[in-house]
Write a structure and sequence with these properties.
Its main location: membrane. It is found in: Cell membrane. One of its GO terms (cellular component) is plasma membrane. This protein is α+β, with helices and mostly antiparallel strands and 648 residues long. It folds into three domains: 108 residues, no CATH class; 305 residues, no CATH class; 201 residues, no CATH class. The chain is 49% helix and 12% strand. It contains 19 helices and 14 strands. The protein has a six-stranded mixed β-barrel with strand order 6-7-12-9-11-10. Strands 5-13-4-14 form a four-stranded antiparallel beta sheet. A hairpin with a 2-residue loop joins strand 10 and strand 11.
Length: 648
Amino acid sequence: MLGKQIIYGDSIKTFVSGIVADLKGNTDITFHDFVSFSTIYRVKELYDDVAEKQWGSTSSSSQFYIKLNKNVTAENVERQMNDLIKKRNPEMKQNSVDFHKFILEPLSDLHFNGNFNTYSNGRVANKNTLYGLLLIALFLLVLGCINFINLTTAQASQRAKEIGIRKTMGSSRAQLVVQLLSETFVITLFSVIIAIGLSPFILKLFADFIPKGVEADLLQLPIIAFLILLTLTVSFLSGFYPAIVLSSFKPAAVLKNQVNTSTNKSRNAWLRKSLTVTQFVIAQFFIMATVLVSKQIYFVLHKDLGFKKDAIVVIDTPYKSMNTNKRQILMDKLNAMPQIRLMSYGDEPPSSDNTNSYGSSYKDGKKEIKSDLQVKYGDPNYLNVYQFKLLSGRNLRLGDSSKAIVINASYAKLIGFKDPSDAEGTYINFNEANTEVVGIISDFYQQSLHNGIKPLGIILPDKYHKRIIHIALKPQTANGNEWKTAISGMQKAWKEVYPEDDFEYHFFDEKIAKFYESEQHTSTLLSWATGLCIFISCLGLLGLAMYTTNLRTKEIGVRKVLGATVAQIVTLLSAELVWLVLLAFVLVTPIAWFAMQKWMQNFTYRTTISWWVFALSGGGMLLTAFITLSFQTIKAAIANPARSLKSE
């Protein structure tokens, strides 16, 4: 291939001067072709589009890489760069509108920072989400260990005679502890083996929640070492306390059937209760988190964003056809379709991950105000398709030169106008040209609600920013087939104009929803985790109820003989355990509130943390716990007192 010619877009001619090895699948740099700046300088189409020397012009795909010399720290270079800015701009002040600061991002952290667009097709991972998933896994493991401890100690009396006989035959306490820990290890080992077998199916089940490229390759040495360490740790944590309890039984007491003579006020009772409280602290935390995340997602998906997002289809035409009239031919065909209300051409829709920014300035006669100005490109129909609210002035016109701009209210206020309408007719220095402000629109959200509203202007598109067609559909009737018919018609028209290219489209509201895909995945995972937490916690509570009723078997029999009703006995047995659930609610509420506040800080615009989030969690958990306890307490309450009072 060396020396061979490759032609892009029927006009951009390049020659292969080198071949690099295939990039690994786990890289964020997913390019296939590398075009040098020397080539860009020679090709007018590329030079005009890239505008490499216009440092005031940037987009979300702009990247600037620095390779540091040895023995040089990134912190030192970052400080020197910012000192240089201050030296060249002595009038610039901290927190002013023209304040700029360089921040060096380590290449190793690029995968975790969504602010850097590397054409990785959404492969950016969120560190907070990953840490959250690890925390969920840890909590589930802790719940499982607590559950095992409670159930094992609740059934300890069933093995009491075995332990007594082993001690009578000469087994030491240490030998019994080792034996019991070994039994726990075997159970844990089988659980790990089952989990390994299920992992490929689990990965498929949760494929939408896992970053692309993640595979169930469990034969890697670090994973094997982790599984071994995990097995040993879980075995010890879940098996040590039951082993100590069981091995402490005295043969004489066991053989006399006096194992359960202790009361709930024994020195070990507090630990079992503490473990149960811990379980319900975790379970209620997950319930509260799930409810709040769902509430925030509902908030962002239903908030007024400042533009119309429903019933709009967005089509991106091929870049290679930029210099042809094919886009206009396609629009003419689409315009004849009865399902289409209005069309516009330009660049990105109002809210998008992809952005373009230019340096701008405004002189009010006393001082010059500089700032970055985010730019959207659209023809006069652009404002009508998305139904922006025009506060003052007029829309763009096809007869306007490139020196006309519609700005948002935020930019008008930034350059000093208390009433945004007063900015109409003023001139700003934009993209190195004096540009007239012909209209002011109300603010809208240019990106997700994680980000704030930024100064913005809308201008007529040049030839490099006409590729995207924005189509507003008419409302559907009762049968609801109009949009489906419209998409089929669009596909047919596309194939007639671009037979070599695949037809790709998306509904704008679905694109907006994808802004919060990570939160939606988190909500789904939290729902699964919450269900597991409640199930495991209820099993642990059931174990404690079994333990308590076993200790109080004779007491229950005496109370029934003396006339206690089933309801009274159920209340007696349940009261203390219900109080444990209420105690967990009191403990978890401030913790959950603090954690929710921290998570909500990821959003510039967020819902409120309502009191009913906590009330719903506490009430739901209390009801679930009472139903769980009823299985054991009712069984104990209706038991024949003659059996409970009989002594072997």
